[in-house]
From TrEMBL:
It comes from the Bacteria. InterPro entries: SusD-like_N, SusD_RagB_dom, TPR-like_helical_dom_sf. It holds the Pfam family SusD-like_3. It is found in: Cell outer membrane. This is SusD/RagB family lipoprotein. The keyword Methyltransferase does not apply. Residues 98-206 form the SusD-like N-terminal domain. Its main location: membrane. It comes from Zobellia galactanivorans (strain DSM 12802 / CCUG 47099 / CIP 106680 / NCIMB 13871 / Dsij).
Amino acid sequence: MKRFIKISKPSLVLLFVLAVWGCTDKLDEPELNNNFAGGTDFTDSSGMLLSTVGAYEAFYSRGWEQPLIISVRGDDVNSGGLGDQPEFTEMDKFNYSKDHWMVNSLWENTYADVISAHTAMEQIARYQEFGSDEEIALGNQYIAEIQVLRGMMLFQISQVYGDVFIPESSDTELLLEVETLPTKAEVMQHVSDQMDLAIPLLPEMRPNERTDLKGGVTKYTALAIKALANQELENYQAVADATGQIIASGKFSLYPDFYELFKTPGKLSDESILDLQYSDFNQGEGDRFAHLYAPYGSVNWTPAVEGAASGWGFYEPSFKFIKFMLDRGETVRLETSVLFTDRGIAELQTDAAYSDLPSFMTNVTRDGDKINDFSRGYFSSGKHYLPSNQLIAGRTAYGSNKNYNVIRYAEILLMYAEALKQGASSSVMTADQAVNLVRERAGMPALSGVTLDQIVDEKFAELAMEWGKRYYDMLRLKKYDELSYDGRTFTEDKKYLPYPQPQIDQFPVLDN
């Protein structure tokens, strides 16, 4: 069962009416799903938009546990579920259970959304049978957008489980006939190929430049996912080519304030390539579309705005990450990434090398929220934190109205730089230039003759706690020793989560 908050039905109808009449001009309002019933008039091409926004709704509707499962095993973050979700804590230590409900939830809900994407594409194709040339072309764009969302979901599910299904239609019965699972490499190549099909059909603009579906998929979203898939394949020339096209477009730039990038001012900035979008619709009560951010928050805080709810303490920046950042002389990226407690600071200072800490490392954020000590952890994630003074008046849920970053331009620059150091070639810019753009925003000195190790470190500093990007880099680069830290022991056979037992029971091919 999905665990997310949906807009009420009256508002859903209103949003669909607005979508049909082209009035979707709010910055961060996703459209919601349309369930097709008998008697659908496929000669009314406005239904294509409803199918499309239904696919977006499915993609945005992440259960709270899903991003955590994808990302918790890296050395940048620790779990905090002990006493509530002990198997989640064990997962962080590379001890897996195929019976854990979270393991099944990620698989089941991701595939449900992939099937929803196929349903939407098939519905659009029905409308195209009766459409004009212009309507057929618009339908092709919508199908391409949905292909991109589907591609991102297959990319992530394969990162987590390795060899997985590649559905080709909404008919789930066909999966029962699969005799051999596609390998992870085959999944990644499929994703890359799908992006090639989608790219020519998509708008050549930033997501925040779209006026029909603000923040929706564009050509550059597809290029970014193509680059990610080819990075997993270690096809670094393809990575350089795809990221180079994004850079050469001149359309993207780094949001100047790293701290605010992950908060309301940074929503759908020129750095955004793919976000999960959520909204309180600029109102303090009533309809909202939201992700449950409570798992990331401190269990105990004194918010600057009285009444703002606290969190669950399930997601904690690691001591290893914090020490790594201190050793580099990081300031704004460390302050942004970590919410400190007095207990965490005191524990750091038991190591003589960290007895003298910078003044920004305090349990009071620059927005005045006080992060009190709590038993589940020493720290909380700052990237998933929305200051209480940025909540819309009347809203109290932790992180309400906050978007969830998926792909940022900073990652594109660093992927490009790594690809060059892995042997690819490109004349768009040098690896030094790409890395130094990211470092400049962070207030870090420029590098000359940047090495692969320095780029990997830069990705650690920039992308920590974002969708397990650090963990999957360590797998791809076979830096397994980095994952054996603080009492954890990682071995190569622990790369992937086990297939969930309920899925094995349904699909015997998973037990081969």
